[in-house]
Design a protein that fits this description.
3 helices; 2 domains; elongated; mainly alpha; Arc Repressor Mutant, subunit A
């Protein structure tokens, strides 16, 4: 059974482990494979934070760290949704079709 990424992380941004180092330590073939594993653990409820400036991955119970992380994720999600909506409009214009909003 493969070790969960969460089990290798420490608490606090100052203890973040860079993705390359974490991927190597845990035996992932690439950082992308590590990211996929983290995505899966997050989907299952693990709260794994990342430093948006490339500082790595870490855990936290600090309300300020959690707030900053959730704000970053929410902003990223809004920007991604805007990009998807723009692309959908371009597709609709190119194909003459109307899609269901949000799809």
């Amino acid at each position: 059974m493969k070790m969960r990424v969460r089990d290798s992380l420490r608490y606090g941004k100052e203890n973040a482990i860079p993705s390359k180092m974490l991927a190597q330590t845990l035996g992932f073939r690439s950082v992308r494979d590590l990211q996929k594993a983290i995505e899966g653990e997050r989907a299952a409820g693990a709260v794994i934070l990342s430093d948006p400036c490339g500082g790595g991955y870490y855990l936290s119970s600090d309300p300020d760290e959690l707030l900053r992380f959730t704000r970053t994720l929410n902003a990223r999600a809004k920007n991604t949704l805007k990009a998807a909506e723009s692309a959908q409009r371009a597709l609709d214009d190119a194909t003459g079709q109307m899609r269901i909003k949000g799809v």
